[in-house]
Amino acid sequence: MWSCMGYNETDDSVDHQLCQDFGLVLSIFSLVYLVVCFPVGLCYNALLVVVNLSNKVSMTMPDVYFVNIAIAGLVLNVVAPVELLGPGFTKWPVWEYNNEMYITLLILFNISSLVIMYSTTLLSLDYYIERALPRTYMSSVYNTKHVCGFIWGGAVLTSFSSLLFYVCNHVSTKIIECSKMQNKEAADAIMMFIGYVVPAVAVSYAFVLILRIRKESTPLDQDSSRLDPSIHRLLLASVCVQFALWTPHYTTLLVQTLAGAQAGVPYYFLTCVSELLAFSSSFAMPLMYRQMNRNFSHKLQRLLKRLQCGDQACAHERSAVQQVVT
After folding, report:
1. High-pLDDT (> 70) share of the chain, %
2. Smallest Cα–Cα separation from 53: which of 141, 119, 128?
3. 3 within 8 A of 85, measured Cβ to Cβ
């Protein structure tokens, strides 16, 4: 699947053989992702969004963040097959896209990555707030919904700045304004700093605060209104997995910023693998949410019963309403 056409005309047979070996490994990884991870991630992300939005009353603060992460995961699911079947990954250009198509996919990928990283970061910070001050307005569902709106808006605005560099990197040098901005490394540096360094610092700070407050047991720990302990494990595990899957991608951006076009076949292979790991975050997150959140299965069962009942209210819902009235 992987293209080595750029090394067919060179005299260095070592690079060509290295490209062939790496290409075989990358082709296997890409095929596994497209056959297994892509459909599973697409179904579970859609299921996570539908189940939670159909039970808005019972949504908690983590549910809102995970819904936004799932929506960003759906965007990644749209970008992934186009990217993995495109001319950059395959010998034959299954999707023959031009520069405009490439830039569009890149911006969608960047927006999704920013939404995922900042939703994960604010999830860890709100988790600390909920641990320290239960029932506070700052980590409430109402406030979290507005915060997530700012996350999407900020991701779009942040991606627009890097969009200028990518666009100017593909247009004619006769445009004076763009001739001074033809630097893809600058766009990568912007995404590296805003998309990874800032969230990593914030998450590290939140983890320090969480560890500190966990050592200080208080009577509030027995408060029944606090989040379920399984949610605590889900939050910590999701933050760790997200950063583990996205760190290789941002590391390659750092290398690209420092080395520029001097990187060879091994670097390009690692870049493709890091993209696969980033795409796999849309597969890992909904599965973790499904396995570690006890309330998700109950919400799914209620949704299925509601769909079976149709427009008429189900028997258990009518009885619940009658009890409230009486």
Report:
1. 69
2. 141
3. no
